[in-house]
Design a protein that fits this description.
Oligomer: single chain
Strand content: 5-15%
Distance between the termini: 173 Å
Radius of gyration: 47 Å
CATH superfamily of the domain at 305-417: Hypothetical protein af1432
Number of strands: 8
Structural class: mainly alpha
CATH topology of the domain at 305-417: Hypothetical protein af1432
CATH architecture of the domain at 305-417: Orthogonal Bundle
Helix content: over 70%
Largest sheet: 3 strands, antiparallel
Shape: flat
Length: 508
């Protein structure tokens, strides 16, 4: 009985296991079939998406190809247009060259005609001399004097016309060369300028410091003015005092001393002397370093230590409101460029330009002419003779003996005479301008004379009935020469002589 029960249980277990296996297998196959369908659907969707992306990429590539083709065609059109322009320009240039050659041929032919006319004139003069000798029974000297007088009176217009022609030719050539040299100089150097003021302002932390600077019964401000050699102005302006002096070097030292005293807070005569000694030593070292830096920048070593120190001190020297160091550096660089363009030694010209006003660093301490002081200093330290000649020549004490000296003189005039470079006293300016007009009005045939353009041009109106067109040239030269001899002026003066003939009638 027990065995049959066991067997029955086993039988039901086997049957249940078989049913379970069949059910699991049937559900798994259904699940796998579903997953297979789902995978195929996703693969098809991916395939469609890739085809769409491929089509989009092809469209973009096509658009880029069209854009590049359009840009290429535009560039090709520009190149063709530029080639056509170049061809047109080359043809125009060729025409201009041909016209220039024709002008040159005409000029040569005119020169030959003038030479033949000159020969005919000389022959006529010789014939006339012989006739006068035979008819008038004059001696050779008397006949020569008579002929010269007649020729001079009859050929005055010819002489004036010849002078005007060659003067115009020389002026054009000179202006062309000068403009080229100046263009080269100005493209290589552009100097910076700053007009030095006569006062320095010192900002104080509070008005309480004004009382400290003045001191008890004014002893501090008296000690400062005596020791520093400046004027200290303390007024009602809040938080500010003024240091005034014509000497830039003393004014700079005084400004620094007062600033240090204000920062320190201890202001009394003993402390003032202590700070002044310290600041003066610092400034001496600073100006020597300034001179060394200048020589390093310009490449002009070696140079004596005393000259180096004086170069640095030019920073605290001004002439007619123009800073001496800025003027000196400008002259050095301009002279170097000009000398190089004219075939001279550019380094020597730069050295001469750098030292041409070195005497100005000594005039405030020793007095006298800065030309003599500078020349003596350079002679003492064995500077090149051209440097010494440039020092004398730039103020007319000697004639320039080299290209380098002439370049320094020209650069000095350019730097000093440019508008705004220097300030001058109104009285001296007015006197000079008045003298220009007086010289012109003293000439025969001059009706009016005006100095214009800040005294840089003299405009002269002459009587058309007394002076002819050709005589105007000689008159302008006479006035210019007299101004050169009688008047001292910077730069150059343009003498512009104007002749105008007017005829007036009335219709009634």
């Amino acid at each position: 009985m027990l065995l049959s029960l066991v067997m029955t249980g086993l039988l039901f277990g086997v049957i249940g296991a078989g049913i379970t296996y069949a059910w699991v297998r049937s559900s798994g196959s259904k699940k796998f079939a579903y997953m297979e369908l789902e995978a195929k659907a996703k693969a098809k969707a991916i395939e469609h998406e890739s085809e769409r992306m491929l089509q989009d990429a092809k469209m973009k590539i096509k658009e880029e190809e069209l854009s590049l083709e359009k840009a290429f065609q535009e560039r090709l059109h520009e190149v063709e247009k530029r080639n056509r322009n170049l061809i047109m320009e080359s043809k125009e240039l060729q025409k201009e060259q041909e016209a220039l050659q024709k002008l040159q041929y005409r000029s040569i032919e005119k020169s030959r005609v003038l030479e033949r006319l000159e020969e005919k004139k000389n022959a006529s003069v010789e014939t006339l001399i012989k006739k006068i000798e035979s008819v008038a029974s004059l001696t050779e000297e008397e006949a020569r004097a008579e002929i010269l007088e007649q020729v001079e009176s009859k050929c005055h217009a010819d002489i004036a016309a010849t002078v005007r022609k060659y003067e115009q030719r020389a002026k054009e050539e000179g202006e062309r060369k000068a403009n080229y040299i100046l263009a080269q100089a100005t493209t290589r150097y552009a100097g910076e300028f700053a007009g030095e003021r006569l006062i320095n302002l010192i900002i104080l932390p509070s008005d309480e410091h004004k009382g400290r600077i003045i001191g008890k019964e004014g002893r501090n401000i008296k000690a400062l003015e005596v020791l520093l050699g400046v004027d200290i102005i303390i007024d009602e302006t809040p938080g500010v005092i003024v240091v005034s002096s014509f000497n830039l070097y003393r004014r700079a030292i005084a400004t620094r001393v007062i600033e240090l005293l204000v920062e320190d807070g201890r202001i009394h005569p003993g402390r003032i002397e202590e700070v002044y000694a310290k600041v003066e030593a610092e400034f001496e070292q600073k100006i020597y370093e300034e001179g060394e830096n200048i020589l390093i920048d310009l490449g002009l070593f070696p140079m004596h230590e005393e000259i180096v120190r004086l170069l640095g001190r030019l920073k605290y020297r001004a002439s007619y409101g123009q800073n001496a160091l800025a003027h000196t550096l400008e002259v050095a660089r301009l002279a170097s460029v000009m000398a190089a363009e004219m075939g001279g030694d550019e380094k020597l010209a730069m050295r001469a330009g750098l030292l041409h006003d070195i005497g100005k660093a000594l005039t405030q301490d020793f007095g006298g002419s800065h030309v003599e002081l500078g020349a003596e200093l350079c002679r003492k330290h064995n500077e090149h003779p051209t440097v010494i000649n440039a020092i004398y020549a730039h103020h007319g004490h000697e004639e320039p003996d080299s290209i380098e000296s002439a370049a320094v003189c020209t650069a000095d005039v350019l730097s000093a005479a440019r508008p705004g470079a220097r300030r001058e006293v109104l009285e001296s300016f007015t006197k000079r301008v008045k003298e220009f007009e007086t010289i012109a009005l003293g000439k025969e045939g001059v009706e009016q004379a005006y100095a214009i353009h800040a005294g840089r041009e003299l405009r002269v109106i002459v009587s058309a009935g007394q002076i002819g067109d050709n005589e105007v040239v000689l008159l302008s030269k006479e006035i210019a020469k007299e101004i050169e001899n009688r008047v001292q002026y910077p730069g150059e003066i343009k003498v512009n002589v104007i002749r105008e003939f007017r005829s007036i009638n009335y219709a009634r």
